[in-house]
Specification:
Number of domains: 2
Shape: rod-shaped
Order of helices and strands: HHHEEEEEEEHEE
Distance between the termini: 40 Å
Largest sheet: 5 strands, antiparallel
Helix content: 40-55%
Strand content: 15-25%
């Protein structure tokens, strides 16, 4: 997960009023950075104009000096008039070209700024709408353990505002060899061998990438029976012994495939009867 995705996930976990403050702060920070860049723009323009004016007069003067410097400064008004015509005609042509280039550059910059501004507004509105839309359909999925004398269930529930997509659901259980954990895809595969006549009332396999609607639940395992049946009570306690050591590696996303929550969960609650 990238830093941007982590930040987006963190923001989504905040209350709506806090999210508005974070977005306002981000916008003000971006506007401040844009203001610094815009303040640098006139400085570059002034430097360009200064160099253009210097070049406009340096280009005709430098060749003139190299060719006629040996003759000295003329006291004749006619020579000065001719020099003025030469300088004005040459410099005007260069300044006209520079002026045309400057107008073209300014037109391009105005177009570029207007385009960037429009794209920035569109991007902000799109991001804001996406954030609000994500919040309006945010799922809140969790693993719900249930343990009664006549009923044991492990279920996935969604108490959010929108459907949740189960992107990861693995079950880790201590290996019989060594201290490592073995990973299983289905919780039913960890259950002990059932005595004849006993069966699970419900179970599900292949939960990955399954959508969980709002208010709905999926039973990973559901064991029901009578406490008057010794086979059931013995098997129920065996199931409890296993469930207390199972680690649930769980992750879910919203309908936009944005990871919302999850983690590694363990429920020692199932082992309370053996303590």
């Amino acid at each position: 997960m990238t830093d941007t995705e982590k930040l987006h996930q963190l923001i989504q976990a905040l209350p709506r009023d806090k999210i508005a403050k974070v977005l306002h702060f981000a916008e003000s920070l971006q506007q401040e950075q844009q203001g610094i860049a815009q303040r640098k723009e006139p400085n570059r323009l002034f430097l360009f104009l200064s160099l253009a004016v210097i070049l406009a007069f340096a280009i005709p003067i430098i060749p003139y000096v190299f060719n006629f410097a040996s003759q000295g400064i003329s006291p004749s008004p006619d020579d000065w008039a001719s020099f003025g015509d030469y300088l004005g005609g040459t410099a005007n042509s260069i300044l006209s070209f520079i002026n045309l280039a400057l107008v073209a550059w300014l037109s391009f910059r105005v177009f570029q700024l207007e385009t960037n501004f429009s794209l920035e507004i569109f991007k902000k509105e799109t991001e804001r709408e996406k954030t609000l839309q994500s919040l309006s359909v945010k799922p809140i999925c969790s693993i719900y353990p249930s343990d009664y004398e006549n009923r044991i269930e492990v279920a996935l529930i969604n108490k959010g505002l929108g459907p949740g997509k189960i992107t990861k659901l693995d079950f880790l259980y201590p290996s019989s060899v060594g201290n490592k954990l073995e990973r299983y895809n289905n919780l039913i595969d960890l259950m002990p061998r059932r005595p004849k006549g006993l069966t699970f009332a419900d179970w599900h396999v292949g939960i990955k990438n399954v959508y969980l609607p709002v208010g709905d639940h999926i039973s990973l395992i559901l064991l029901e029976g009578s406490t008057d049946n010794p086979l059931f009570t013995e098997y129920r306690d065996q199931v409890r012994e296993i469930l207390k050591d199972v680690r649930f590696d769980f992750e879910y996303s919203n309908m936009f495939d944005e990871v919302i929550g999850g983690g590694m969960f363990i429920f020692p609650y199932y082992g309370r009867h053996t303590k």
